[in-house]
Amino acid sequence: MKVSFVDLHAQYLSIKAEIDSAIAEVIAESAFIRGRHVDAFERAWADALKVKHCVSCANGTDALYIAMRGLGIKPGDEVITTAHSWIATSETITQAGGRVVFCDTQKDTFNIDPSLIETRITKATVGIIPVHLCGQAADMDEIMAIAKKHNLWVIEDCAQAHLAVYKGKLVGTFGNAATFSFYPGKNLGAYGDAGCIVTNDDRLADWTATFARHGGKGEHVMEGINSRMDGLQAAILNVKLPHLPAWTTARRRVAARYNDLLGHLDRLSTPKVAEDRSHVYHLYVVTTDTRDLLKKTLGDSGITTSLNYPKALPFYPAYAYLGHKPADFPAAYRNQSRILSLPIYPEMTDDMIQCVANRSREVITDASRAGATGAKLAEV
Ligand SMILES: *Cc1c(COP(=O)(O)O)cnc(C)c1O
Predict the structure, then answer these.
(1) pLDDT at 372
(2) Which atom of ligand 1 is nearest to the CA of 160?
(3) Is 190 in contact with 176 (CB distance < 8 Å)?
(4) What is the mean pLDDT of residues 308-328?
């Protein structure tokens, strides 16, 4: 059986009539850029999160950049973020004129380790960008307490965590602002690029909306950028949003099934969910010291997996200028060679889950046996 990493087509087929008519409507109205579908989505997403404002924009990367500009970042300001994320989280700090300061992660959750954040704070620090990686909330109580104590802003990068909950509250509602991506493969995905900033801060909402639209329509009160959500994406998101809770439940069901089937193995760890939060499983990441063998064997059997991400951010050439060594980020460094994202999406059938789990179990059990007898593991 072939199992792909995600199957966006399966989801389309499950809501085809709704999607097709929403697209036809946008075209019939020529509501291509902004317009009523975008307004409706902004309202619906803000209401879903119970925040005052949702400012739509072109993608989740722009959302981070725009939010930082809105919070008044100045050249040379330092922003602390996690060593383990997609590069959008850190590259936008540089784009906005700031300096990237990485902080190591927790070994088990892959999220920023709040106990290390204060060691990274200097006189130049202005903000913290935690990422709710894989769909699990970072330790927001600790992070917000540090931010308050040192008078720093917080932008939550929620690109992987639509509807994830921390202590009864949705992520995206803790920081000064939060950013979302609606890239097609995200838990709530458009059919192209789209993103947004959410905030309860009236001034920030107004500033970011103005900045993202050329500094204002008619009267340009400043120079801005062009970062707009288009009508087709908004109409598609409006169709999909009501399904998101059920899709999230379905992701949790897939994760629970994987946990049952893989949870007892010696040389593989299933995802750890920290206390008081509910994971939305954008990614289901296992860790094992036989990661490369597992990835290759699954691939050879027609099962697509992914590495999110193959290197921790400080170890990419893009950040060579920071001169970091593995010992600076031991948890992120250790995890980068052990993580593997297994296929997960709401439409996965139980047969598919079992196929992935059984094949994984075979590889891990064989490796354990080989390890126990002192035999050398197959090199891949
Ligand atoms: C996807 C993603 C982004 C960027 O979103 P785009 O819409 O692709 O620009 C930012 N941060 C994280 C953690 C992401 O996973």
Answers:
(1) 59
(2) 15
(3) no
(4) 98
Paired strand residues for 82:
103
Q: How many CB atoms lie within 10 A of CB 94?
A: 14
* Same-domain pairing of 107 and 237: yes
Q: Which residues line ligand 1 (CB under 6 A)?
A: 59-61, 85-86, 88-89, 131, 157, 159-160, 181, 183, 193, 195
Distance from the alpha carbon of residue 157 to the mean position of ligand 1, in angstroms:
8
The total number of structural domains in the chain stands at 2
User: Cis omega before residue 309 (within 30°)?
Assistant: yes
Centre of ligand 1 from the C-alpha of residue 61, in Å: 6
pLDDT tens for each residue of 183-196: 999 999 999 999 99
One domain for residues 35 and 134: yes
Atom of ligand 1 nearest to the CA of 195: 7
User: Is the same domain home to 61 and 191?
Assistant: yes
Q: Assess whether 235 and 366 both reside in one domain.
A: no
Q: Structural domain of residue 213, as residue ranges?
A: 8-242
CATH number at residue 325: 3.90.1150.10
User: Which atom of ligand 1 lies closest to the CA of 59?
Assistant: 7
Measured CA to CA, the distance from residue 133 to residue 308 in angstroms comes to: 10
- Taking the C-alpha atoms of residue 262 and residue 286, their distance in angstroms, rounded to an integer, is 9
236 and 275 in a common domain: no
Residues 374 and 254 in one domain: yes
What is the best residue among 56, 61, 134 to mutate for testing ligand 1's pocket, by most ligand atoms within 8 Å of CB? 61
**285 domain residue, yes or no:** yes
Q: 369 in a domain, yes or no?
A: yes
Token match 């995905």: residue?
A: 189
* Strand order across the 165-166 sheet: 169-170, 165-166, 277-278
Per-residue pLDDT tens digits for 324-379: 999 999 999 999 999 999 999 999 999 999 999 999 999 999 988 887 554 444 44
pLDDT in tens, 222-264: 999 999 999 999 999 999 999 999 999 999 999 999 999 999 9
